[in-house]
Design brief:
Length: about 290
Amino acid sequence: MQALVIVAHGSHLNPESSAPTYAHADTIRESGAFDEVREAFWKEEPSFRDALRTVESEEVFVVPLFISEGYFTEEVIPRELRLDDWEAGLWDSDGTSASQATLHADDVDKTIHYCGPVGTHDAMSDVIVKRAETVTGDPDVGEGFGLAVVGHGTERNENSAKAIEYHADRIRSMGRFDEVQALYMDEEPEVDDVTDYFESEDVVVVPLFVADGYHTQEDIPEDMGLTDDYREGWETPAEVDGHRIWYAGAVGTEEFMADVILERAAEAGADVSAALERVREATGGVPASGD
């Protein structure tokens, strides 16, 4: 038997924070890829601490639904799962290349394949493009459009910006959009000045966040000038300084994210090739990069 455990941050304050995790878990559960599929959270129940005790399978694939490598993926999650032999060097990553590490959880006597975060997987570039297609309603969106990939950014974790730049570079290399720019909330270049960074009249803005919440539904719309008060909502597209801004909301809410989770598990050795096809069919996912 093999199990999948999706671990995410969750929130005590925002009940919608965990919604994408449950939705993607349901999609994967329906695909029949695993004997068991579980969700676990840092700020909600069920907790990381109990996650491995809830599965019967001897082999468990743990996929963090986080955007970047860092404190949570390298310290909090392994500690709470009691992966005693874990050390960050096992991923042998430059900050965006974590794949997986196989460990043994002695207290529950299970083999654990601890995967890198979904946010740095190559397939996330496809999800960002898919998000742009969804918000514009155009499966061929690209020509005549600019694309802004937006992250939180923080000097406390340099990997936060690395993930954003990594996907902006990959999508730029596809040659699909006229312009591609990485922007941030808390460091330069800032999303507040989004129209300064594009010549294209139409700009799609995709926040690289797992769930919609305070940042994606309040801060970013107001910072970009989509609205003076988030509570009054905004138009899509919205006119800002002579540009049409197509604001997508959190990329993690895109159905195609379930594909990235399965890709992570597949790299760690899970036999999910048939399920991948079923998930792509269910979510309308077609890799934009042609991979």
